[in-house]
Amino acid sequence: MQEAKHILQKYWGHESFKSLQEEIINGAYNNKDLIALLPTGGGKSLCFQIPALLKDGICIIVSPLVALIEDQVKSLQNKGIKALAITGGISYQELDALLDNCIYGNYKFLYLSPERLQQDLVQQRIKQMNVNLIAVDEAHCISQWGHDFRPAYLNISVLRELHPEVAIIALTASATKEVVRDIQDKLLLREPLIFRKSLERKNIAFRVLFTEDKLYRLQQLLQDKNESAIIYVRSRNATQEISRELQQRGYTTAAFHGGLSSKEKSAKLNSWLREDVKIMVATNAFGMGIDKPNVRHVIHLNLPESIESYFQEAGRAGRDNELATATIITNKSDIPILKNQFLKSLPDLKFVILVYKKLVAYFQIAYGEGVDTSHDFNFAEFCSHYQLNTSKTYNTIQLLDRISIVKLSQQFQKAASLQFIISNKQLFYYLEENPKFDPVVKAILRTYGGIFENKMPLNLSSICKKSGTIESEVISILNQLHRDKIVEFEHQQHDASIIFLVPREDESSIYPFGKYIKNQAKNKTDKIEAILAYVENDKICRSRQLLTYFGETDTKNCGICSVCKPVDSNIRKETIKRIYLEIMDFLKTGDRSSRELVAALPYPEAGILKVLQLLMDKEIIGLTPTNTYKLK
User: Fold this and answer.
1) Where are the strands (E) in 424-560, listed by range?
2) Cα(566)–Cα(414) distance, rounded to whole angstroms?
3) What is the percentage of the chain residues whose pLDDT exceeds 90?
4) At what angle do helices 379-386 and 471-483 cross, to 10 degrees?
5) Distance between CA atoms of 554 and 543, rounded to whole angstroms?
């Protein structure tokens, strides 16, 4: 370990290891399989980088995070350590040359995506390499019980077959007991050493705030415009809308979502890291692998889909160990939205069989035939033809991919994209001259906020339904708008390809996976119920609730969360009663917003908001369509 400490000081400038790093490094150096569960910011990468530098040969790292791969490779190269990454967008000849470098060029680190690992050429060359360690980052992705399951991870065990004598180190920031068992089984680990550091983040105040006026509460949390923050929302439209609202109030913001190009994502991320922009408003496409130490607030304006994803996203706050907050701002209307979005789109066995039968009929595959045949696939047309719910059907085809019935290329999410390149006013004049385009244009404008600022993916079947127009006519109209330089429109005729991996046998192909399909639905339901229970439980310390979920038993109250230190803890019952009476008197004169009530009444804002929530719960008052309160 003296040599390990020398490497730590030489390349990273640290004098000592963080908790558990030394034990993990020692185990990996001695060729032991191991699972390392370290919280965000716990120094996972050093746990495989240092033992790899201590030994002859090359370390192979499998990671799903292209941005993190590129950052780590650049960081190692800047230290004079030979490292390379094989990600997407490179030619066969370039791939061939890079793999040769790994065999003959004294490289110490090769980073791969799990998808890249599936290539025969990559596997053949890895077999020829002098591999000293195999690291699997974000290892929870291999588990069907994990929050970010990825089918390609299931094939990582091929590395064990290629180099059976080499130790495998699996790393993740959070995992339940079921996920740890899955990691061990799926990676074929041999009596692994398991290192688990408490996930407790003593400097993060976990909060849940109930309000009908989310934007107002958001501004209250972000009182210092110079503090760095991440705001998570559910949709791409919401990233644009919230970002614009905050900019109008003097904040510097950027909107980040999965529909941006790699160049746009990189530019926005760098402006945030440089502090040119203080607040990132994002979908969950932003964050994994992002390491910014001074994030003071992580705020969720929509309910997360699981405790795992929430804990990972919230953990991006306060990595400098200074006090930070992780807040969910919610109200009762969020609960049905969450359930509808994630639970109603879960396929059961009957629906999976239905979609499979429609697929083989769509491609006219005869019974007992079809194995290894490839077909161009227009997903939107398929759903429209059979009148299938797009979200539920998408989840079903993904499931068929996971159980190896079909293999799907998923470009269809970017099949059609559009951006208006003229002003709103110019568009108005254009539609006056071309009224036949009005229904389609209005349907797009009602559906996609921010479409004047960014090119956005279009759901053509949704536009067809809202405009009462068939798909071929919609595409014809959008092409005309493109020719008239009203929009930039891109459309792929065949937006995916699908390969059938087994012969057509209808129900017989699917029935063996009935238990798996049922378990997947139960797993998703359990995760939704767990996050709802967390949000609604205002009796137990929020930090303790989160730690208990991940199997930690020796926990203590944090003293800083919204349960341990409620904002209304100093408001007496007599004051609550007075607030109640004055709110009732005020509302008798007309409807009022929470802001108007706070401005008019001489009481703490927290008390006024608490009483409003109580009156809403007892259905004494209600909300108008304009978000003001009224007497019932």
Assistant:
1) 456-457, 487-491, 497-500
2) 45
3) 48
4) 140
5) 12
Residues 6+ apart with CB under 8 A from 188: 157, 160, 168
Report the C-alpha gap between 198 and 107 in whole angstroms.
34
- Please report, as a single letter, which amino acid is at residue 68: L
Residue with tokens 């004079």: 80
Taking Cα atoms as reference points, which of 271, 346, 277, 269 lies closest to residue 305? Answer: 346
Please, which residues bridge with residue 193 across strands?
Answer: 34
Q: How far is CA 209 from the centre of its chain?
A: 22
How far apart (Å, rounded) are the C-alpha atoms in residues 214 and 329?
A: 7
Q: What is the largest CA-CA distance in the chain?
A: 83
Q: Report how far apart, in Å, the C-alpha atoms of 253 and of each of 241, 243, 528 are.
A: 11, 6, 30
Say which CATH class 573-631 falls into: mainly alpha
Assess contact for 621 and 615: CB atoms under 8 A: yes
SS (H, E, C) 155-214: HCCHHHHHCCCCCEEEEECCCCHHHHHHHHHHCCCCCCEEEECCCCCCCEEEEEEECCCH
Cβ pair 215, 245 in contact under 8 A: yes
- Enclosing H/E stretch for 632: none
Residue extents of the structural domains in the chain = 2-196, 204-339+527-549, 343-412+496-505, 416-491, 573-631
User: What's the whole-number average pLDDT of the chain?
Assistant: 88
Q: At what angle do helices 334-342 and 514-536 cross, to 10 degrees?
A: 170
Tokens of 552: 């930690």
C-alpha–C-alpha distance, residues 359 and 502, integer Å:
13
CA–CA distance, 397 with 358 (Å, rounded to integer): 11
Give me 398's structure tokens: 């993904």
User: What is the DSSP code string of 468-484?
Assistant: T--HHHHHHHHHHHHHT
* Bridge partners, 629 (sequence order): 592, 623
Kindly state the helix (H) or strand (E) to which residue 136 belongs, with its residue range.
Answer: strand 131-136
**Residue in 591, 586, 575 with CA at minimum distance from that of residue 626:** 591
Question: Does domain 204-339+527-549 sit in CATH 1.10.760.10?
Answer: no
- Which pairing describes strands 324-330 and 295-300: parallel, antiparallel, or unpaired? parallel
* The two domains 2-196 and 204-339+527-549 share their CATH topology (first three levels equal): yes
Q: b or e along 432-469 (b: 16 or more beta carbons within 10 Å of the residue's beta carbon)?
A: eeeeebebbbebbeebbbbbeebbbbbbbbebbebbeb
Q: What is the mean pLDDT of each run of 10 residues along the chain (632 residues)?
A: 90 88 94 90 88 95 81 90 83 86 92 86 93 94 75 85 96 87 93 91 93 85 92 91 93 89 84 94 80 93 92 91 95 85 87 95 93 84 90 89 79 68 91 92 87 82 85 89 91 73 90 88 90 94 94 91 75 77 90 85 80 85 85 88
**What percent of the chain has a predicted confidence (pLDDT) above 70?**
95
| CA 440 centroid distance within chain | 31
Task: List the structure tokens of 522.
Answer: 């139960």
In whole angstroms, give the CA distance from residue 205 to residue 213. 22
Residues 6 and 57: their CA atoms lie apart, in Å, by: 19
Phi-psi region of 57 (alpha: psi -120 to 50; beta: other; left: phi over 0): left
Q: Say which DSSP state 17 is in.
A: P
Give the DSSP per-residue string, 389-423: -HHHHHHHHHHHHHTTSEEE--GGGGSEEEEE-S-
Instruction: Provide the whole-model pTM.
Output: 0.71
CATH of domain 2-196: 3.40.50.300
Q: Domain 343-412+496-505 belongs to what topology? A: Arc Repressor Mutant, subunit A (1.10.10)
